[in-house]
Amino acid sequence: MICTVTFNPSLDYIVRVDDMRLGTINRTTYEKVLPGGKGVNVSIVLGNLGHASRALGFVAGFTGDELCRLCAEAGVDCDFIRVAEGMTRINAKVKSNEETELNGQGPNITEKDVEELFSKIDALGEGDTLVISGSVPSALPHDMYERIMARLNGRGVRVVVDAERDLLTRVLPYRPFLVKPNNHELGDIFGVTLRTRDEVVPYARKLREMGAANVLVSMAGEGGVLVAETGEVFESPAAKGTVVNSVGAGDSSVAGFLAGLMETGSYETAFKMALATGSASAFSDHLATRPEVEALIASS
Ligand SMILES: Nc1ncnc2c1ncn2[C@@H]1O[C@H](COP(=O)(O)OP(=O)(O)OP(=O)(O)O)[C@@H](O)[C@H]1O
Ligand SMILES: O=P(O)(O)OC[C@@]1(O)O[C@H](CO)[C@@H](O)[C@@H]1O
């Protein structure tokens, strides 16, 4: 069984604006509302690739209702906890000359809500996978990731973590199965700028030394690097194509990696599938579908 946890899922409001300007009214030329949040995206793409998962997290208010409806429409098995105060956030993604994101704060989550989430996670055991990704709402303590890892310790659950900075480094002692920073996040951890795949490799190795079994570093159009638990290093540029919407590309690569590994047991294939799934999402206005991923792999 695979579960994803998104502490702060969202409705993503994707808009296109020609020549966006600050301090004035801008009119959109395209708009779309998508279910969002990193774990939610991983669940959607896993489903698209033919692998069932359950999406856990917290929702609230009318935006929470719409998120549940959109997730159901996308075929995601959701078991969200409904919290009493506030609303599921709306994250605005503005595509113009540059891409600008405005991510909201999310609802108020109480310790009782957190306990409810933990009791759901307690159902996981040997051979199961838990993906924890995305930010933790400011109302929650910052050790949420560690608390989950500590709770699962010794139960044989493979934990995948996609989060920034301290959230990521603080789980490393619990030996996560996979971490997926992008090159900027990896550079931030070590106070360096990482531009090329060659520059990324030694820092990805460091995360392995600090406790992660597998380290997948995504690098947008530059592709990515995998330092696997076998000690093997895989690196590749990304497929060439026109980027339509890169929101969720990183989450797609996590889903692609897990799907590839479950299907073949090969880290090389899992890595190829991670990159192709990320690119397939970036090249369309929806998250990657299996035929799109296979077409990219076939053309590589
Ligand atoms: N411009 C691009 N061209 C080709 N592939 C891309 C591009 N942008 C992203 N991808 C694919 O998606 C993968 C993940 O992208 P990226 O590194 O931007 O993730 P991320 O920073 O975690 O993104 P997000 O937080 O938006 O999900 C890349 O490894 C690559 O395979
Ligand atoms: O604010 P966070 O939790 O860091 O990121 C949330 C988010 O930007 O991540 C997803 C893309 O990866 C989007 O669907 C969502 O809006």
Automatic annotation (TrEMBL):
Keywords: ATP-binding, Kinase, Nucleotide-binding, Transferase. It is an enzyme of class 2 (transferase). One of its GO terms (molecular function) is 1-phosphofructokinase activity. Its EC number is 2.7.1.56. CDD domains: FruK_PfkB_like (cd01164). The keyword ATP-binding applies. It comes from the Bacteria. It catalyses: beta-D-fructose 1-phosphate + ATP = beta-D-fructose 1,6-bisphosphate + ADP + H(+). Residues 22-282 form the Carbohydrate kinase PfkB domain. Belongs to the carbohydrate kinase PfkB family. PANTHER family: 1-PHOSPHOFRUCTOKINASE, 1-PHOSPHOFRUCTOKINASE-RELATED. Catalyzes the ATP-dependent phosphorylation of fructose-l-phosphate to fructose-l,6-bisphosphate. This is 1-phosphofructokinase. The gene is pfkB.
